[in-house]
Amino acid sequence: MNQFAFVFDMDGVIVDTNPYHKIALREFAAKYGYTLSEEELIKKIYGRTNKEWIPNLFERKLSPEEVTRYGEEKEQLFRDLYEKDIKEVKGLTDFLEEARRLKVKLAIGTSAPRSNVDFVLKHTGIEKFFPVILDESHVTHGKPNPEIYINCAAALNYPTAQCIVFEDSLSGVAAGRAAGSPVVGVATTHSASELGTKVVINDFTEITPSQLIQEFKF
User: Fold this and answer.
1) Helix (H/G/I), strand (E/B), else coil: 218
2) What is the mean pLDDT of each run of 10 residues along the chain (218 residues)?
3) What is the pTM (predicted TM-score) of this model?
């Protein structure tokens, strides 16, 4: 079973951060005089990199330094909110342990900045499972562009068709599909019907790596 790889988005898949990101986003936007509806969060922000959504929010061209500064301000808000509550999505470590026993290669492919990735890895202790970790700095285009998943597959030295992607956002599901990868929906942010993937789980207690590979008939 070592001919397959699993690629995990981070927010909403490894950790259920999205309720906290939503609070941080709205606090950040309100500080600068903007109000974000649920629809705007889904369409303009979720799954996208800071360098994409921040200029969209301000509706003007920003210098790279401004984007970095605003992005880190928002992410620090998020980390301050989430630090006391951080925990992995249920069953994740056991799932990763079995995947490793089966010699399934593992990667993280996220739109988040490295500061958030380091924060999550520090508090969950799962870094040891992932030889490949790509963040927003590794792509030019955020999701729904497939670049992050194409790059993860290349880093793992696997075809995208043999990389099963785990995603919770609509833009992330679209990115996985555009890369040519099978996609597992993780229903932390959207319902099964909204995600529209062949396999949907609420958490990692609901399926094993062996069952998953069988499901996609590899």
Assistant:
1) coil
2) 86 94 93 90 79 89 94 95 96 98 96 93 97 94 94 97 96 97 96 96 97 84
3) 0.89
2: its two tokens: 């070592």
Q: What's the total number of domains in the chain?
A: 2
Phi and psi dihedrals of 24, rounded to 5? -65, -40
Domain boundary among 33, 64, 82: 82
Domain range enclosing 170? 5-16+87-215
Distance CA 163, CA 23 (A): 32
Q: Are residues 162 and 194 in the same domain?
A: yes
> What is the separation of C-alpha 153 from the centre of its chain, rounded to a whole number of angstroms?
15
Sheet with strand 199-201: strands edge to edge: 132-134, 105-109, 5-8, 163-167, 183-186, 199-201
Under a CB-based contact definition with an 8 Å cutoff, are residues 6 and 99 in contact? yes
* Shared-domain flag, residues 23 and 12: no
Burial of residue 193, with CB atoms counted within 10 A of its CB: 0-12 exposed, 13-18 middle, 19 or more buried: exposed
